Amino acid sequence: MEKVKLREYQEEALKDIFNAWKTGYKSILFQMHTGTGKTTLFSEIVKRGVNGGRKILIVVHRKELVEQIADRLELFDIEFGIILAGVTPDSTKNVQVASIQTLSRREAPKANLVIIDEAHHATAESYLKLWDIYENAKFLGVTATPVRFNGDGFQELFDILIQSKSLKYFIENGFLVPIRHFVCATPDLSGVEKLYGDYNQKQLHTSVMKQKIMADIIDSYIKHANGKKSILFAVDIDHSISLKERFCEAGIPAEHLDAETPKEERKKILNSFKSGEIRVLCNVNIVSEGFDVPDCEVVQLARPTRSLALYIQQVGRCMRPAKDKETGIVLDNAGCWLEHGLANRERFWSLKGKKKTLKDEEESINAVLIDSNGFIRGIPSAPEESEGLMLVEMEEHLEKLLVFEIFLAVATGKNHKPIAAYMKYLEHLKKFHLSITKKEVEYCQKRLENDYDNSSFWYHQLKSCLN
């Protein structure tokens, strides 16, 4: 079997990881961008560990990742057992690849090295037990996105964070392709509550199933990416199937996948997508992590999410290089750019995590953009990489209204009524001896009316406040 050759940045990462262990760090969190070969990297670590007599446990959170890792280990000529429901275990192997759900119900195998793939999930209760079970083992968590919903860090689990190269490095050296981020129609999420850190699934379903949003998803694909291979991320099964049917009705070959799709059927669908027979693959989070179709040119975001990790993982599906592929295309029908900034933004990570403050927001913004509704958006990224937004020169009234937008984002994030942002804004102006102009009042009125039904109690409160 042909030996897998590591790239220079992977060799450099290996040295950093082994040096950290030698220095005395027991538990390492390693970050490297989606599509740059994390599985290949830790497979080489597994191979060296096996040659050194180690017993190794690799833990993942989905069965699809078990299958992907198994395929990669075979390329490295590594023998392994699988701990997964419906698979006959083989405890004689020194390497075990386990689904965390199955592992939590069985006797834990012996191991002196534990590798956690997609380690941003490692704070879940089922994972936390691993540190108690393997208290004398070394740990390696790998992820493209070391970030948690609530802004908390990973310092309680990991001793050190090692980052690989920047996104800019991977693009400039041809390991990833640049992306064009198209801003499309955004669903109204004003009535969608937060649940377990993300949006309430049932309420979100109602918002995204509206006729205008559904139609725009098809229209934006035809306008910006017609005929290109696209992976679409839907909210739930009904949403995904409905979109698949709409694409087919428009003459665009499409198919649907979810976690319940039988293995053989899933394999057949993926092969049809890879061959180009299927142009649009509608799915429910089944290909956001550990999915490798380099010639996928388009990612269509039809699922709003508050998860930065999920957002980056999804966008990463179209950034892998392939023959004749110059760029990836992101069709953002979910308003993810509003929640997280543009997808091509360079991000810096920390074990300590970070909770956003108003000061952080003000310091991070270096461009002011106007969307199709005329609303101001401060985006900490290069606006020329985006479509559907107009770059405008910073003026005094825009700078003031940008502060209002920040207060509005903070209020929304805390589930406060948007009118609270306006009252806070007035307090802010008063504090700095500034007055509010008629133009600014009109902007705030239009912005807040966007969040209220005009028959609601809060709408009338807003009107009396602004008049």
What does this structure look like?
The protein is an alpha/beta fold. Helix content is 40%, strand content 16%. Helix 5 links the parallel strand 5 (113-117) and strand 6 (138-143).
Q: What would you report as the Rg, rounded to the nearest angstrom?
A: 24 Å
Average the pLDDT over all residues and give the rounded result. 85
Biggest sheet descriptor: 7 strands, parallel
Give the distance, in angstroms, between the N- and C-terminal Cα atoms: 76 Å
Low-confidence stretches: 356-366, 380-385
The helix content, as a percent range, equals 25-40%
Structural class: alpha/beta
Shape: globular
Beta-strand content? 15-25%
**Count of helical segments?**
17
Q: Would you count the extended β strands for me? A: 19
Task: Summarize the topology.
Layout: H1 8-23, E1 27-31, H2 38-51, E2 56-60, H3 63-75, E3 81-83, E4 95-99, H4 100-103, E5 113-117, H5 125-133, E6 138-143, E7 160-163, H6 167-172, E8 179-183, E9 194-195, E10 198-199, H7 201-208, H8 211-225, E11 230-233, H9 237-249, E12 254-257, H10 263-275, E13 280-283, E14 298-301, H11 308-315, E15 328-332, H12 336-340, H13 358-364, E16 368-370, E17 376-378, E18 386-387, E19 390-391, H14 396-413, H15 418-431, H16 438-449, H17 457-466
Parallel strand pairs: 1-6, 1-7, 2-4, 2-5, 3-4, 5-6, 8-15, 8-18, 11-13, 11-14, 12-13, 14-15
Antiparallel strand pairs: 9-10, 16-17, 16-19
Helix pairs in contact: 14-15, 16-17
